[in-house]
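#struct-pred

JT: dropping the chains for the assembly here, can someone run the whole complex?
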Amino acid sequence: MSSDAASTEAVPEAPVAPRHRGPPWDVLSAVAVGGALGAVLRYGFSLLWPHQPGTFPWAVLSINVVGCLLMGALMCLITETVTTHRLVRPFLGVGMLGGFTTLSTHVLGTMNLVAAGHPGTAVVYVLVTVFGALLAVLAGVRGTRLLLRRKGDAR
Amino acid sequence: MTALLVAVGGAVGACLRYLVDRHVQGRHGSSFPWGTLLVNAVGSLILGVFAGMALSGPSIPVLHSLFGVGLCGALTTYSTFGYDTVRLFLDGARLRAAANVAATICAGLTCGALGVLGATALWGS
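RK: done, full complex below.
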């Protein structure tokens, strides 16, 4: 009985704020337009820098590293400093940079390297992408923070 | 024409990623990015199927642009994965950051390979 009382008292509060029943259409539209732009940019990049299956996928590596650098910079701007419009993150972050960078094409490139008889290059490709991407995020965050601080000091 | 197909696929892929992530994170409320991990695994599986199909079955360029480059490319993401990992690491959850890297790479490669093998088995015979 006492445990019953305890359990009714200890009803946890909802861990997240109550959500809308349906998806927020303005956010979804921003994500869609951003995603379309990001994917087309990635496609354009791959046309400018074509690569034969089985060779080192420089274009996809650059896309993912550059996208991560920009994501670090964007999230630093949004979370730490400027009050931005609430659709900026869905449009630029979730949509555009999310649609620009890709894991699936990276995976396909890795499998193509293995299939072409270059398993060592495939391992190098995976490691360079992971560490390059993580360092790029960090550089984006730290670099933006530094620039903002300098700008603040100059005022 | 190809760019249009990529754009439509990219719009749908990004929306699916947003909705899946919102649903998964809303249920778990955990700091571990389960939603991004899930879309990355599923997107790699689908692209694997398309790659396997192109190897051994019918080659349909329209489907490749729409689903392969557009939808799978935008459904999966490296930037959100990278940012989430760095955020976990800087928040002191270093083990979870490392687990996210290992899980994403292993799930992506395994699902991609399974997709290729499945499609090859289906269309190769």
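JT: nice. The CA atoms of residues 39 and 99 of chain A lie 5 Å apart. Chain A touches chain B through 54 residues (CB under 8 Å).
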